[in-house]
Design goal:
single chain, 10 strands, 3-stranded mixed beta sheet, Spore Coat Polysaccharide Biosynthesis Protein SpsA, Chain A, 8 helices, alpha/beta
Length: about 260
């Protein structure tokens, strides 16, 4: 069994921005010596994606459904076969030192680590420069540097490093979330309510690569209201309800092919 593997959920966009960002993230993982499992949740695999580094690619048919990050990460769990998992969005990365520090913390006493305390939203010029090998920009002290300043960053948002046993113990991610929103919050609540040891590298910064984002793909999509209800359930459900859901989810997770 490999010590640590990154699970990267992915679906391409028509303009190719997400493919470009994915290539940056996979190159970062390769340079950090962290093997990657790329899980494509889409109707068809991205045939235009040609990678220069070794990556395990797995396609999960979406059958016309919206992108489901939770389903992709759960599928990645069965393919990763690692004692430590890094759940990595296909458009977010941190300095390699922060990733390695988080892995070492999870090798120790912590069960889950978010490897950053601040999130820097890169514009298109900065993203293109990083893709061409340019240096990282300075990160401001604020938690966010864009119009989403009031949006809380969950424990498992963007990038999270955690013990595989911790992910398994809560049944993985809740696949009832469809499209953008809520699934990271649900996993964060599940891990904290399970009493696991969680930490955040408060002084570190993460970098979010630029890509077009519309209201329709985020707050305005057809499943967002349902996602909010599911996220609220995780915060408000009783201990008994949470435990019952985790047991059923864990059975599905460990029995998946």
């Amino acid at each position: 069994m490999t010590d640590v593997v990154a699970i990267v959920p992915y679906r391409a966009d028509e303009q190719g921005f997400r493919r470009r960002n994915l290539e940056i993230v996979l190159a970062w993982l390769y340079e950090a010596a962290v093997p990657a499992v790329l899980i494509e949740h889409s109707d068809e695999p991205d045939i235009e994606l040609e990678l220069a580094m070794p990556v395990t690619r797995v396609h999960i048919p979406a059958i016309g459904r919206p992108f489901n990050k939770a389903r992709a990460c759960n599928a990645g769990f069965s393919h990763a076969r690692a004692t430590i998992l890094a759940l990595v969005d296909a458009d977010t990365f941190v300095p390699k030192a922060a990733l390695h520090a988080s892995i070492e913390a999870v090798r120790g006493e912590l069960d889950v680590v978010r490897p950053y305390g601040r999130l820097l939203e890169l514009d298109e010029d900065a993203t293109r420069a990083i893709g061409e090998g340019g240096p990282l920009p300075d990160a401001p002290p604020a938690a966010r540097d864009d119009a989403r300043e009031d949006e809380r960053i969950p424990l498992c948002g963007g990038i999270a490093v955690l013990k595989s046993s911790a992910f398994e113990s809560v049944g993985g991610m809740d696949e009832r979330f469809e499209g953008w929103g809520g699934e990271d919050d649900a996993l964060s609540v599940a891990l904290t309510r399970a009493g696991l040891q969680c930490g955040i590298l408060e002084q570190g910064a993460a970098f979010h690569l630029a890509h077009p984002r519309s209201v329709e793909s985020r707050y305005g999509h057809a499943h967002y209201a349902g996602n909010l209800e599911r996220a609220r359930w995780w915060y408000e459900a009783s201990e008994e309800e949470i435990a019952r859901h985790m047991r059923a989810s864990r059975e599905r997770l460990i029995s998946a092919p």
